[in-house]
Design a protein that fits this description.
- The chain contains 22 helices and 19 strands.
- By secondary structure, the chain is α/β, with parallel strands linked by helices.
- The strands form 4 sheets. It has a 6-stranded mixed beta sheet with strand order 9-10-11-12-15-16. Strands 2-1-3-4-5 form a 5-stranded mixed beta sheet. Strands 8-7-17-18-19 form a 5-stranded parallel beta sheet, with helices on both faces.
- Helix 1 runs parallel beside helix 5, helix 7 packs across helix 22 and helix 14 crosses helix 16.
- It starts with about 25 loop residues before the first helix and ends with a helix.
Length: about 600
């Protein structure tokens, strides 16, 4: 508003359609806007630019004002600015929470900034201001994630009437009659936007991308970049924010690294077969103020050192694979000051019940003769004694939190060996799976005894704890050291402060490589949907996927509105996973998601 002048005016009337859902009735908005127009006409009568504003609290007008910059010789005497200061006096507080500001012209940066600082709940404006509008036209102050407050905006209420007041005023300054006012004279347009840019009246949709990696094909960040291209092709004005995510498996470090709040630490750690390899973890150094809660937090990704990609996938390898490398990473993080260590469990090649991890942490795991058992699942066939004391001493007060996307117990038909052993390379034709599970059962009992000797665990037996079987039983080992198991996707979304973005979103696009029965048990897309439903039930949630099973009723019940398979034409898997095809497919899916959202408006 501050930039308006007799020679500069360029007012857009906008669309006078329905209000966005959940922000108030159109009739009430129009009634209050007419009161603001009365103030605008009062300004014109005084020779001021005709802009008026009122503030409404609990359905009652508590302040009204009009533009008085010239009369008061005050650069801050904008209509809405003055109305807000008067409203604060009426309420006896500087916070205008619960208040709606109605103003005939889109607020400028100064007034929008005051709305943020005053914590207003909503702004309704009439005409858009292409030369200074700060709540949707030139800037988006009302929902800038960098600021400490956001507020709803309803644009275009009585837009043409508000624009006419301004056009008439400036035409008279130029000596024209009102009847001579035309679009050419003052560069006025009541409908500048193409149809594709008017999905929700004059509202530019706010889109949040929270897409997991497509395993073996594309990272979370890259998938989001390509979906973003498609979404913007369908709706160029969309405000798109990407939140790289993971559920504790492959890509966890990449997702957290994107927050910019953690430093990378390089380390040499053991792979599943004892070879030293280069790896890293993330550590937030001690800070103060807003960073203090993150001081001493480390993020470890098990797949970095013992991932499936580091094993040939044979039965021999699966029996020998050890989780010791995860212990190497944790101990290095503790040595560098970590007080809380998050351990992402997904995507490992091991089935050793976390025995290698425990031994790396200092635990003694021996056979009947007192000798250290062999590495891997095969070594559990001979385990007879477990002493966790040295590991507890090395950890001290450090808190371990395992991040998992599965709810499998340690043993049984849904346990670590029988469910995940096949993907790690165990071949039932070569290996007795029941025998392997019996080794894990005995190991679990011994682990229970060793744990009770050091602390008072919250579980009766590790064997039945949901999630203990994650990463071939590494979840059970973390629990045995007094750690906890948490949902990987929930923790990652919290670290990324996802809820703050989701609360202001119109559309959230999530997804992963395959949507199936496991998706509801802790996978990223459903985790995203649940967060959105909790903080913003009105938002649409679309999941893009490389593939899907026939029955997705549980996925839809969990909060996803639409599942879009990304393949735009029939193609073999190896072709679909080529970067150029993946990009084209994800771009098409992003465009489809944006247009599907438009149909709902």
């Amino acid at each position: 508003m501050d930039k308006l002048g007799a020679e500069e005016l360029d007012v857009t009337g906008g669309d006078d359609g329905a209000c966005p859902a959940g922000v108030g009735s159109r009739s009430a908005d129009e009634r209050f806007m007419r009161m603001a127009l009365e103030e605008a006409r009062a300004a014109a009568a005084e020779g001021e630019v005709p802009i008026g504003a009122i503030v409404v609290h609990e359905g009652r007008v508590i302040a009204r004002a009009h533009n008085r910059r010239e009369l008061d010789e005050d650069p801050s005497a904008h209509a809405e600015f003055t109305a807000m200061t008067e409203a604060a006096c009426v309420l006896g507080r500087w916070r205008l929470t619960g208040c709606t500001v109605y103003v005939t012209l889109e607020p400028c940066l100064m007034c929008a900034g005051l709305m943020v600082n005053a914590r207003v709940s909503r702004c309704v404006y009439g005409a858009a201001d292409p030369k200074g509008g700060a709540v949707g036209t030139l800037y988006h102050v009302h929902d800038d994630a960098r600021l400490n407050h956001a507020f709803e905006v309803t644009p275009g209420v009585l837009a043409e009437e508000c624009a006419v007041e301004l056009r008439t005023f400036f035409a008279r300054l130029r000596g024209k009659d009102a009847a001579e006012i035309g679009q050419g004279a003052l560069h006025i347009s009541a409908a500048r936007l193409p149809r594709s840019a008017t999905l929700a009246s004059a509202h530019a949709p706010r889109v949040v991308l929270a897409i997991d990696s497509f395993k073996g094909s594309v990272s979370s960040a890259q998938a989001e970049a390509w979906v973003r291209e498609g979404a913007l092709a369908a709706e160029p004005r969309a405000r798109v924010q990407a939140v790289p995510i993971a559920d504790g498996g492959e890509g966890t470090l990449d997702a957290v690294r994107g927050t910019g709040k953690f430093a990378e630490h390089a380390v040499r750690a053991r792979d599943p077969f004892g070879r030293r390899v280069s790896a890293c973890y993330l550590l937030a150094s001690a800070g103060d103020g807003a960073d203090a809660p993150r001081a001493g937090v480390a993020i470890v990704e098990s797949a970095q050192v013992i991932g499936l990609d580091r094993s040939p996938g044979t039965s021999e390898a699966a029996l020998a694979a050890s989780s010791a490398g995860v212990g190497d990473l944790v101990l290095d993080a503790v040595a560098h000051g970590a007080q809380t260590v998050y351990i992402g469990l997904g995507g490992t090649a091991t089935s050793d019940g976390g025995a290698g991890f425990l031994r790396a942490m200092g635990a003694r795991i021996a056979d009947e003769a007192g000798n250290e058992i062999a590495p891997g699942l095969a070594g559990l066939a001979h385990v007879a004694h477990i002493d966790l004391g040295p590991a507890f001493e090395r950890l001290g007060d450090v808190k371990l939190i395992a991040l998992s996307d599965v709810e499998n117990p340690l043993v049984g038909r849904r346990g670590a060996v029988k469910v995940f052993g096949l993907q790690k390379g165990l071949d039932p034709a070569q290996v007795d799976m029941d025998a392997c599970d019996s080794w894990m059962i005995r190991y679990g009992h011994l682990l229970d005894e060793a744990c009770r000797a050091q602390c008072s665990p919250l579980f009766r037996s590790l064997a039945g704890v949901l999630g203990a079987g994650a990463a071939g039983g590494l979840g059970a080992a973390v629990l045995a050291l007094g750690g906890t198991l948490e949902s990987g996707i929930d923790t990652m979304l919290n670290l990324a402060e996802f809820d703050e973005l989701a609360a202001r979103a119109d559309l959230v696009i999530t997804g992963e490589g395959l949507l199936d029965e496991q998706t509801v048990s802790g996978k990223a897309p459903v985790g995203v949907a649940r967060h959105v439903r909790r903080v913003n039930p009105q938002a649409s949630v679309v999941a893009v996927a490389g593939g899907r099973v026939d029955d997705l009723s549980a996925v839809y019940q969990a909060g996803i509105d639409l599942v879009l398979p990304i393949c735009r034409r029939p193609m073999p898997l190896d072709e679909a996973m080529r970067p150029e095809e993946t990009r084209a497919n994800l771009r098409a899916a992003g465009e489809a998601a944006m247009r599907a959202y438009a149909l709902r408006q």
